[in-house]
Amino acid sequence: MTSPESARRSYESVQARRTQLLQAAVRVMGRIGVAAASTRAITAEAGLPHGSFHYCFGTKEKLLEELFRLEVNDVATQLASHLPTSGTLRERLELTLRAELERVKRDPDRQHVMLDLTATAHSTPALAELPGWEHDRYLQIVRENLVSSAGSHDRRAERLAVLVVAGMRGIVAAWLARGPQHDDAEAEAERSIHDLALALVLFEGEASADGS
Amino acid sequence: MTSPESARRSYESVQARRTQLLQAAVRVMGRIGVAAASTRAITAEAGLPHGSFHYCFGTKEKLLEELFRLEVNDVATQLASHLPTSGTLRERLELTLRAELERVKRDPDRQHVMLDLTATAHSTPALAELPGWEHDRYLQIVRENLVSSAGSHDRRAERLAVLVVAGMRGIVAAWLARGPQHDDAEAEAERSIHDLALALVLFEGEASADGS
DNA sequence: TCTTGATTTGGCCAGGTGGCCAAATCAGGA
DNA sequence: TCCTGATTTGGCCACCTGGCCAAATCAAGA
Q: Whole-model pTM?
């Protein structure tokens, strides 16, 4: 009976459909950008009819918000799971920065989607608070690692964490700007990580001696 | 004869109309984002009829490319004009970073437009090379200043410049993520600049002693 | 004066957009 | 068994999008 063209889809929970759409969204956004990823483009990528979009999310803004939160959580999880707990401060800083760069290199389009989502959120009132939340998220993870692993004071770890996150962002942005196929980009990023880790270690040493 | 509603616009050169549209574009993009800035929204902001858009630019992509180049040139000019030529390395680094932060604080929407344009360019084949060109532009300016002003070797200045630009990007991004009205953002950015300048000076000192 | 070319303008087009809905379909408990 | 609520689906809507064009208007040189 179930001939191919008249085959009706088996029923799934709304949650299952939601995750399908979210995964399809990040794929298609990585290919054509956030702005060009229409509700129809997303449902088509997921192999679902257009009507399912409104049924599962109601509004495109809802999809964007949920996608942003999911992606940030995923990045935060990967970041947290690669934080080193032993070694010198310099080694730990290098490993942290390198792990983040490796994550971006593993799937550059995904990071492009994150940056595109952040830009979109900035000019969307309902999503305007998300970039701040995202930044605080990364900051907290790095700070707590520095406190628990280096045993430094909260105040000192905070200042160091801010520089780590800022440098991380800048190094990743530079690598992305050059493009994944650019050869020099990788070497420059590696050198930046090496140099930044050294600079931060020297800064930490200087600061722990002096009280500034 | 020239009754208000039938008053025809006085003729201007295409270039004049182009700059009108470009200025209107950056205004409206700062308000509603790059993606939402349609050709009609831009012409309306400029007080021109819709047809003038195609007459002046032909394609929206052309407007985007020209706008990107203009904005990058403007940022680069402001950056170059505020580069210090005297003082200790630490003072010069602080001034450079602070000048860039002040530029962003002077008109945050403009920086949002830049980031949004960069994200858009990444998923637009015709504009894909612009982000790399932008990054190299800033890098070159900072590097040349370090060479001429600090007299350091090209190789050393290059590595320092990369860290300066990366840190600059990260600090500005952090400030923007918090939002212009957030009080703590300003203090944190100032502290980051202070700390980063110190870290880079220590790095430079260490590197000039050792040969790594 | 006439003519040539640049500029202005409003309207037109095919196509895409987000959102919505009612009818069809199904799963599972009463 | 029937029935209630969840799910699916295709089509509909008003609106907006980028691009285009021909007629109207004007400036300035021949």
A: 0.94
